[in-house]
Specification:
Order of helices and strands: HHHHHEEHEEEHEEHEEHHEEEH
Pfam families: CBS, CorC_HlyC, NMB0537_N
Strand order of the largest sheet: 8-9-12-11-10
CATH class of the largest domain: Alpha Beta
Number of helices: 11
CATH architecture of the largest domain: Roll
Keywords: CBS domain, Cobalt, Magnesium, Repeat, Transport
Organism: Candidatus Accumulibacter aalborgensis
Function: Plays a role in the transport of magnesium and cobalt ions.
GO cellular component, one term: plasma membrane
Length: 281
């Protein structure tokens, strides 16, 4: 036997193909094979999770993961440079839809990095810095959108409904998070200090892994953490399942709307506390 063959260690795709000698007849059988491979330590947990995410993304639509219209962070074409810089600093986003008067009239996309080239002495008009926006239907599949993002090198698209109205927006990060899980970088709000963030509409954006104790302290609620340690756990325990995007759950007068979730976990919630619920605690 050739010594080079004896020392050869099969790679991920070789190990996966060895499982598929008998081709699965449907997706359920494929998933059974993948889980069997994980149990036999041919696939690690991360590889299994990413494969499951990729398969799920091929069946999901933009509508299921987009940021809905009321929660879009936007700038107006008539905003001053100082107003725009303040919005960039507050949200830490890199791209913003540019509207003309209201959210139904998106005229383009602004890249925060373009502001670095602005010279105040030359005057400023946001219209000079607006880039074309990409508009997509809300029922486009995520795998198709990801391919289009890669080809066009766009990172954001505006989502329209069947009546050509603005339904929301989606970024390439939103799509990738459905495959590999939540992506955090140095511009995401800090896990320890900013799990709870108040937005301009008076609503709270809350990460699902926020401790119930921290949530109670910040919002004046009184949820018990005897059974669940996190806010996401409260929702899962109440429903007995993973909620869908945009689904709303009301617990003790507090409204939890799912801003981001996939088939396996909740990531982010939008929370509204009624005055009576807060006062009763």
């Amino acid at each position: 036997m050739d010594s080079s063959d004896a020392g050869h260690k099969p790679g991920f795709f070789e190990r996966l193909s060895s499982l598929l000698v008998r081709e699965p007849e449907d997706r359920e059988q494929l998933m059974q094979l993948l889980h069997s491979a994980h149990q036999r330590k041919l696939l690690n947990a991360d590889a299994l999770s990413i494969t499951e995410g990729a398969l799920a993304a091929s069946e999901m639509t933009v509508r299921e993961v987009m940021v809905p219209r009321p929660l879009m962070e936007v700038v107006d074409v008539g905003d001053s440079l100082d107003e725009i810089i303040a919005r960039v600093n507050t949200t830490a986003h890199s791209r913003f839809p540019v509207i003309n008067g209201d959210r139904d009239h998106v005229v383009g996309i602004m890249l925060a990095k373009d502001l670095l080239r602005v010279r105040r002495e030359d005057g400023f008009s946001l219209r000079d810095w607006v880039r074309p926006a990409v508009f997509i239907p809300e029922f486009k599949r995520l795998d198709v959108l990801l391919r289009e993002f890669r080809v066009s090198r766009n990172h954001m698209a505006i989502v329209i409904d069947e009546y050509a109205g603005i339904a929301g927006l989606i970024t390439i990060e939103d799509v990738l998070e459905q495959i590999v899980g939540e992506i955090e970088d140095e511009y995401d709000f800090d896990e320890a200090d900013d799990n709870i963030q108040l937005d301009q509409n008076g609503l709270y954006r809350v990460k699902a892994h926020t401790a119930v104790e921290d949530f109670n302290e910040a919002l004046g609620t009184g949820f018990s953490d005897d059974k669940c340690n996190t806010v996401g756990g409260l929702i899962l325990r109440h429903l007995g399942r993973v909620p869908q995007f945009n689904e709303t759950v009301v617990l003790d007068g507090t409204s939890f709307q799912v801003l981001r979730a996939d088939s396996r976990r909740i990531y982010t919630l939008v929370v509204s506390v009624s005055p009576t619920a807060a006062d009763s605690e």
